Each structure stands twice: as structure tokens, then as C-alpha cells.
Amino acid sequence: MAVETREVKINKWGGSLAIRFPNDFVEAANLKEKSLVEIRMDGDELILKVKSSKPPKYTLKELFEMYPSDYAKEDELDWGEPVGDEAW
Question: Closest by alpha carbon to 47, among 38, 55, 34?
Fold first, then answer.
């Protein structure tokens, strides 16, 4: 879906500046809240590239696979002495 060029204003948002995207651009790029984009400067041009329209999601197994194999050994975890009715 081709979208024409548009001029938009830059507004203050807290201590930063922000651009609001028109709906037809949002729909054409399939942008969602928390979409990941890459921004870079090329001379005097600011280039915005959509990286992902969804936040990354990992399974629990994938998250654990990201840790180094020697990260935490069972004997390194010390929760202290029982203080209540814990079943140790």
C-alpha cells in the first residue's frame, strides 16, 4: 500500500521530542504500540526502519538457553535458614 509523503510537526513529550504518525502510515507499516524501529541519520536525512511490529516473545526454554551453561549452580543458591513453616 503506497502512502503519500506528509509533513508532520515535532512536539515536546516530557524531556524529549516526538512525532505522531498518521493512521494511514501506521496501517501501511503495520505498527503497533511497542513496535521496534531503527532510526539512523544519513547526511541530513533521518531514516526510520520498522524492525518488528510485535515485541519479541520467548518461551521459558529459550530464555534459559540464553544463559551461559555455567551461570548458576544449584549449590550457589543460599536462601538462608528456614524462618517459618517452609518444607525443606
Answer: 38
Q: What is the pLDDT of residues 9-37, one digit of tens each?
A: 999 999 999 999 999 999 888 888 888 89
Cell matching residue 56:
519479541
- Per-residue pLDDT tens over the stretch 60-72: 888 888 877 776 6
What gap in Å lies between CA 58 and CA 53, rounded to an integer? Answer: 15
Displacement of CA 62 from its chain's centroid (Å):
17
* Alpha-carbon span 53 to 32, nearest angstrom: 6
- Of how many residues is the chain composed? 88
Q: Residue 10 in 3-state DSSP?
A: strand
Contact 25, 7 (CB under 8 A): no
Grid cell listed for 21 = 504518525
Half-sphere exposure of 72 (CA within 13 A, CB side): 8
